[in-house]
Amino acid sequence: MIQQRDIAIIGGGPAASTLATLLCRQGHRVVMFSLPAQAPVLVGESLVPMIVPMLQDLGVEEEIAADSLLKPGACFTYDAERVFEFRFQDNPKGTPTYAYNVPRKRFNATLLENAQRAGACWIRRRVRLDRVDGTDQVRLDAESLKSASGYWKGREPDLIVDAAGRANLIGRLMKIPMQPGPRRDVALFAHVDQTELVDPGYVHNDRIDQGWCWRIPLPGRVSLGLVVPKEYATQHGSSAEEQYDRLLREDPVLQRLAPLARRLTPVLSFDNYQSLSSRLYGQNWVMLGDSGGFIDPVFSSGLLVAMKGAYQLAEAIGSGRSMADYEQAVKAHLQAWFEIVGLYYDGRLMTSIERGQAMADSVAGRLFLPWVRKHIAAIVIGAATTRRFNLGLLRFLVDERFGLYDRDSEIYRIK
Ligand SMILES: Cc1cc2nc3c(=O)[nH]c(=O)nc-3n(C[C@H](O)[C@H](O)[C@H](O)COP(=O)(O)OP(=O)(O)OC[C@H]3O[C@@H](n4cnc5c(N)ncnc54)[C@H](O)[C@@H]3O)c2cc1C
Asked: Is 48 in the same domain as 172?
């Protein structure tokens, strides 16, 4: 039987709400602390297929579907001749053949309401944490603790979960080093009324002069994000708005993709997002979701890592096992995405996909290509991102001595 524990979750995002629901199902007393989102729009609107089984398990798929657009695939464009379309219909057997593009505020609200229905208490406040002197423990500030007194009888919770996203509360407090990623990009993001779209519902990724852009079709609008090197952004203005609007007007690819786009929201800007915390747990605390690390927007992996992490953490708490397994699993997940994302930026991933396509009509292509495709697809949709066999196959395919021995991956490099 599971021992009932008092658990504080800091944050009201998908990681926090997913974990809260799962812990309430286990019978724990869960208090979530967060303020309602103030930003006009939230980033993170494109889901990968392997989130769908989690939405089903949480019992929210129908509600999410009603607010969202069905996402049947992804389309990557480099120039007029180099367009790669990936249909989720072709996903490996037993995995979802679709995903969703979600207006994030509504998505967060649905998950949060679900957590409350499961029994979690939501306290609308911003928490401050303190370190307990001379220990590896943290504690809630007195006011936050008091606000939960009806629920936990006034004492400190048994476990504090930092699911506060990029605020990385515990990491900053405990001075835990973050491993930075190699890219120094800035992501400029807003909603616009319209853009060109190759396939309805698909998430679109286009290489631009420097960097790349995403187009995520949403009900009645399109999320248009520009991911460019920081110094390139600053050449286009001092404010995020100036940079976004000028890039939209001046980049030749963006001119073609969004010639009539009218911006509907302010521009939000994100930088230094590639990072991985060197520690994910301590004596009475644990990090979950973005607070422990985030890799890159390019393959829409953030929500997968955050929500899958919630399942892994709930499992660790429920089984009473050490958090070491949880930490190892999350780090392996983030490291795998670091590697895959790196192959996107250095051009080797698409070079290898193009090589596969060129072999499609050969005997070897007919025999092996469907098998190879399924194993690689399983990585990027989130079904086998950390599986050794799949990653080994990918490494072979993108190795310049083996899979790419006669190919130049520069053609697909992202500046
Ligand atoms: C440019 C960019 C594009 C992205 N695009 C995608 C995408 O298309 N698909 C995808 O899957 N992922 C994407 N992501 C990643 C995704 O947004 C995150 O991985 C995801 O939101 C993580 O969820 P979370 O619950 O860990 O954190 P968050 O969603 O950031 O939630 C953190 C919560 O903590 C609260 N909080 C913060 N400080 C405190 C405090 N002191 N007290 C109380 N509450 C606090 C916040 O208010 C918020 O509710 C993108 C990220 C970036 C930077």
From this structure: yes
The CATH number of residue 199's host domain is 3.30.9.100
375 half-sphere exposure, CB direction, 13 A CA radius:
16
Mapped onto helix, strand or coil, the DSSP state of residue 71 is: strand
Answer yes or no: are the C-beta atoms of 197 and 73 closer than 8 Å: no
pLDDT at 144 over 90: yes
Mean pLDDT of the 102-125 span: 98
Average pLDDT, the chain: 96
Q: Quick one: average pLDDT of 291-298?
A: 96
Quick one: 51 and 156 in the same domain?
Answer: yes
**Confidence band for 31, pLDDT divided at 50, 70 and 90:** very high
Residue range 388-399, pLDDT digits in tens:
999 999 999 999
Ligand 1 binding pocket includes 289 (Cβ within 6 Å): yes
Are 130 and 249 in the same domain?
no
For ligand 1, what atom is nearest to the CA of residue 225? 1
**Among 33, 303, 312, 313, which is best to mutate for testing ligand 1, by the most ligand atoms less than 8 A from CB?**
303
What range does the domain containing 162 cover?
6-68+103-178+275-337
The pLDDT of residue 322:
86
299 shares its domain with 213:
no
Task: Please check whether residue 330 is in contact with residue 290, taking contact to mean a CB–CB distance below 8 angstroms.
Answer: no
Number of domains in the chain: 3
CA of 13 to the centre of ligand 1 (A): 6
37 CA closest ligand 1 atom index = 47
Strands 73-79 and 203-207: parallel
Q: Which of 337, 354, 380 is the last residue of a domain?
A: 337
CATH code, 296: 3.50.50.60
How far is residue 221's CA from residue 225's CA, in Å, rounded to a whole number? 13
Rounded Cα distance, 100 and 102, in Å: 6
